[in-house]
């Protein structure tokens, strides 16, 4: 299933906001019409690669915010687990200092809706529900959602493969450039580099100069 150019699946779920407050009814709907959203999934709290990613997003949060982009994390852990991890210092493996929302997908319905759950629930020959796959946790999915609530980009990494936060920021810049100027972004485009007119002449002109 591809969510590209489709509405981002809606949900309402508990989350920790501001690093220290649990809310029971968090939703991405609050950003529709106002902000793009980077919505990312990670496997588990209190693990190894996950805190490096979560803290890396926090380190870049001003870069996202000055572009009007909201960052939201999500895993299948409980909101209480999120909060405990957020209250744990970095030198003890925690993510203290992270301020963007982290959603608790304990029912795993959000992970399934975004097709990042690392397996499937199936019914066996005895009519019992079994889980088949790696584990009932989320892969490292990253989704760029535009102001209309449409998914414009996503990438999903396997569990041991940490994502590139600079690439997520680059995709935000590319989306905003395209929407503002109407040009398209060629391979390895970065903010400040040449784009292309979406015509045969535009492509020829770009290729002849690069």
Automatic annotation (TrEMBL):
<dbReference type="InterPro" id="IPR019479">
    <property type="entry name" value="Peroxiredoxin_C"/>
</dbReference>
<dbReference type="InterPro" id="IPR013766">
    <property type="entry name" value="Thioredoxin_domain"/>
</dbReference>
<keyword id="KW-0676">Redox-active center</keyword>
<dbReference type="GO" id="GO:0045454">
    <property type="term" value="P:cell redox homeostasis"/>
</dbReference>
<dbReference type="InterPro" id="IPR024706">
    <property type="entry name" value="Peroxiredoxin_AhpC-typ"/>
</dbReference>
<dbReference type="InterPro" id="IPR000866">
    <property type="entry name" value="AhpC/TSA"/>
</dbReference>
<feature type="active site" description="Cysteine sulfenic acid (-SOH) intermediate; for peroxidase activity">
    <location>
        <position position="50"/>
    </location>
</feature>
<dbReference type="Pfam" id="PF10417">
    <property type="entry name" value="1-cysPrx_C"/>
</dbReference>
<keyword id="KW-1015">Disulfide bond</keyword>
<keyword id="KW-0560">Oxidoreductase</keyword>
<feature type="domain" description="Thioredoxin">
    <location>
        <begin position="2"/>
        <end position="177"/>
    </location>
</feature>
<dbReference type="InterPro" id="IPR050217">
    <property type="entry name" value="Peroxiredoxin"/>
</dbReference>
<dbReference type="GO" id="GO:0042744">
    <property type="term" value="P:hydrogen peroxide catabolic process"/>
</dbReference>
<comment type="similarity">
    <text>Belongs to the peroxiredoxin family. AhpC/Prx1 subfamily.</text>
</comment>
<protein>
    <recommendedName>
        <fullName>Thioredoxin peroxidase</fullName>
    </recommendedName>
</protein>
<keyword id="KW-0575">Peroxidase</keyword>
<dbReference type="GO" id="GO:0033554">
    <property type="term" value="P:cellular response to stress"/>
</dbReference>
<dbReference type="GO" id="GO:0008379">
    <property type="term" value="F:thioredoxin peroxidase activity"/>
</dbReference>
<dbReference type="InterPro" id="IPR036249">
    <property type="entry name" value="Thioredoxin-like_sf"/>
</dbReference>
<dbReference type="GO" id="GO:0006979">
    <property type="term" value="P:response to oxidative stress"/>
</dbReference>
<dbReference type="Pfam" id="PF00578">
    <property type="entry name" value="AhpC-TSA"/>
</dbReference>
<comment type="function">
    <text>Thiol-specific peroxidase that catalyzes the reduction of hydrogen peroxide and organic hydroperoxides to water and alcohols, respectively. Plays a role in cell protection against oxidative stress by detoxifying peroxides.</text>
</comment>
<dbReference type="GO" id="GO:0005829">
    <property type="term" value="C:cytosol"/>
</dbReference>
<keyword id="KW-0963">Cytoplasm</keyword>
């Amino acid at each position: 299933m591809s969510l590209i150019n489709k509405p981002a699946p809606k949900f309402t779920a508990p989350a920790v906001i501001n690093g220290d407050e649990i809310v029971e009814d968090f939703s991405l709907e609050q950003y529709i019409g106002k902000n793009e959203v980077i919505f990312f999934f990670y496997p588990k709290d209190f693990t190894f690669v996950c805190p490096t990613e979560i803290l890396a997003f926090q380190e870049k949060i001003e870069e996202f915010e000055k572009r009007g982009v909201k960052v939201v994390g999500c895993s299948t852990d409980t909101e209480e687990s999120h909060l405990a991890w957020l209250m744990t210092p970095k030198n003890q493996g925690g993510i203290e200092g992270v301020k963007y929302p982290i959603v608790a997908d304990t029912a795993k319905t959000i992970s399934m809706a975004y097709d990042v759950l690392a397996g499937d629930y199936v019914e066996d020959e005895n009519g019992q529900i079994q889980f088949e796959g790696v584990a009932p946790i989320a892969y490292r999915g990253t989704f760029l959602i535009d102001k209309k609530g449409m998914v414009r980009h996503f990438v999903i990494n396997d569990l041991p493969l940490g994502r590139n936060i600079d690439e997520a920021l680059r995709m935000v810049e590319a989306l905003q450039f395209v929407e503002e100027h109407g040009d398209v972004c060629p391979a390895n485009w970065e903010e400040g580099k040449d784009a292309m007119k979406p015509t045969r002449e535009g492509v020829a002109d770009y290729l002849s100069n690069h």
